[in-house]
Request: fold
Amino acid sequence: MKAANIFDRVFFRFIIAGIINTLAGSAIMFVFYNFAHAGYWVSSACNYFITSVLSFFLNKYFTFGVRRRSFAMIVSFAVVIALSYLIAYGAARPAVNYLLGGASRKVRENAALLAGMCLFTGLNYLGQRLFVFNRGDAKEEAKREK
Reply:
């Protein structure tokens, strides 16, 4: 896939679905961390666990226009979510701790949660686009729209 093809109509639909998902997920994550006093990993995991179902359906039907049902698609979606989550939040925490070493733990962890969200979004988009929903269905749907 060419880099120019990554930023097409599908990309912008992914952004819209992502905004909906991010609003729900951010509320869950920051409420868990700041008000329920759950830790960094529990708060971020609750966000992605709860919103993954919403994300799957938004991306499958709205973003990529895939209509077929497939257990393999669900499994690959879950794997991409899990890997994106572990890489993004695993990298964000030490990076933010290094960059904001003098800040309080609460500030560093809130910043790491925000940075992890951003990293996750990019990794997740690439994984969904290139591996999960890259089965030819989106291409067929795009042809029907023309």
